[in-house]
Amino acid sequence: MNKTARLWRWLGLICVLSFGALGYLGWQIYLYAPPIPKQVVTTEGDVIFTGEQIQRGQQAWLAAGGQQLGTVWGHGSYVAPDWSADWLHREALALQAIRTAQLNDKDVVAVRVREEMRRNTYDDLSGAVKVSPERAQAIKQVASHYTALFGSDPELAKLREQYAMTDGTLPDQADRQALTAFFFWSSWAAATNRPNEENLSYTSNWPHEPLVGNTMSTSAAMWSMVSIILLIAGIAAMLWLHGRGEHEEEAQVPKTDPLAGAKATPSMKATRKYFFVVIGLMLLQIGMGVITAHYAVEGQSFFGFPLADILPYVTSRTIHTQVGIFWIATAWLATGLYVAPLLSGKEPKLQKLGVDVLFWALIVVVLGSVITGWLGTMQRRGVDFSFWLGNQGLEFTSMGRVWQILLFIGLLFWVFLLGRALWPALKKASETRGLIAMVFLSATCIGGFYATSLTWGQHTHYSMIEYWRWWLVHLWVEGFFEVFATAVVALIFTNLGLVRAASANRAIVAETIVFLFGGILGTLHHLYWTGTPTSVIAVGAVFSALEVVPLTLIGLEALQTWRRARNVEWLGAYKWVILSFVAVGFWNTVGAGLLGFAINPPASLYYVQGLNMTAAHGHAALFGVYGMLGIGLMLFCLRGLYERQLHADQFLKPAFWCLNIGLGMMVFMSLLPAGIYQAWASITKGLWYARSPEIIHSSVMETLVWLRVPGDIVFSAGSVWLAVYALKLLRRGRQALPQVQVKQA
């Protein structure tokens, strides 16, 4: 007990210190972010852009699809260019051509162009950026290209198709002009030296662009070496501690199923519909993923059918990424509502009504956000509609602000329902009370930290939008949801008798300490190149390396649990539940650990941010870890919601293996090779080249896209088998449920 209490104190201290450091660095980002000039003017006084246009251009880009339509500073989708890198390259070429016409010496021109584009001419007093008349001419040439591209110029129809864009993406001429101001500013910040810095831009010389002298900084290289050393040392230390530690006596697995006599209460029964919706949303996400992937070959069609007329790439990708979060989160939320009465042994008054109300509220949010997002994209309703109701244009957090507020209220209501159901178990002294407390605390953080989605507004600086967005995506999804799910899994194993309660109690707190120690400040590895100070690179590199350390043992622990369980006859009923958790351990090690660390060090991310290396890591980690965890939790809950003889387990075997094998094929036959090929292009010529049609639509890349088809087919077959299992269970589930008492926690 004393050891566990010490662990809780350490957990509290680490959370306070880590969030304090993260908050302090956020303040530094706010102070040292690239300034938005009041005007961009020539040395002769002609105004090119205004600060209002730059801010309006940011809104216009986000309303047009934003991070679902290419990237800025590397964050977003991969078919269209990174607009900051693309503008930078085009402007450098245009300026070189103009200067060469004046001075017919390419070597001298190259040096002068590099010096001119790196020179910081921002004036603090006037708030203006001054450029030469020749550079102003180059800027206007590039701007005319983008105003035509985001309009309906027939000469750029082929390029729009290659970028998976539709005609008239931004129908308003003023919005297109403002868009060019934003793209210019994002590239200006990427090339212009920071004040009092030599050869170091606001984005730490990202993207790689030899024409303007953007090469990897010394700090990025040095901190990458430090992160690798820390990773090796951390893994060695953990393995050493694990090997020399006192191994507690293993739990004696019961001779019969401890949960066989559990009775589902009315609120527990009410969670059944959540799980069937989970499978429906999963099928929708897969369908949208197939369409989105195909747009990399046919930018506006699906096997010749002009699908983009009704479902453009921006919409299909938005639904694909957003619904993925929805179904995984729904599975975890429903699991919490199911296990709470099971653990406490009591059903709070009106709990079923609350579970039903929350379900329909979530349905309204999911359908409402998808429909209004589609309408906003199809009808070009403008920046205000996009921000409040439509598509905010931010990856994984794209729903309009109204839907975010409603979801936040729904999550707080979920925490309330979970807390009132767990309260009897929290008051009662027991060996599992620490685990139950961890479930409730992490659930409270899930509800509370979603408030970070409300921190940015329409005029917030792009660097700060990215800072807060990753608080949500990294800390909310990869942090507190993972702690919540890990605690729930520990409780499941404890109740099944696979793990001793005292051991699980200490282990979950210790694992949470190790995970959050690296995970909280590891958030910063997403922010290396988003206009942040170099301290972000140092802290992000160190702590993102430490994130990988605890993942080295997860796969081993999961495999050991399965080996202990497979010889117990009654555990056959939970075979696919436990194997799903084993798969989580595998993908945690491979997807989150191996593929994650492959891109996390600054020296790696400098070249591969915004390429398919990120997509390989994202698919393996998001579905492999969080998706399989959601499926495992769902199967466990369904085990207790329907009589054992009603389950068509013969469909779960092909579902499990097809999902995991298909995911592996998708990642290692298509996404990872595509990312490596793009990385070669990025290293040799620059990011603009890796994201150019010359590479994206090369025979190599299009072949790799088609090589994704076998994996997609196998993966889709797994989801169909899972759906068949659910339909069989739903049809047979008209029968009575078990009628014995709830097991006391």
TrEMBL record:
This is Nitric-oxide reductase large subunit. SUPFAM superfamilies: Cytochrome c oxidase subunit I-like. The chain crosses the membrane at residues 7-27, 220-241, 274-297, 325-345, 357-376, 402-423, 435-453, 473-496, 508-529, 535-556, 576-599, 619-642, 654-680, 713-730. Signal peptide: none annotated. Gene3D superfamilies: Cytochrome c oxidase-like, subunit I domain. The keyword Glycoprotein does not apply. Residues 37-208 form the Nitric oxide reductase subunit B cytochrome c-like domain. InterPro entries: Cyt_c_oxase-like_su1_sf, Cyt_C_Oxase_1, NorB_cytochrome_c-like. Keywords: Membrane, Transmembrane, Transmembrane helix. It comes from Piscinibacter gummiphilus. It comes from the Bacteria. Pfam families: COX1 (PF00115), NorB_cytochrome_c-like (PF22085).
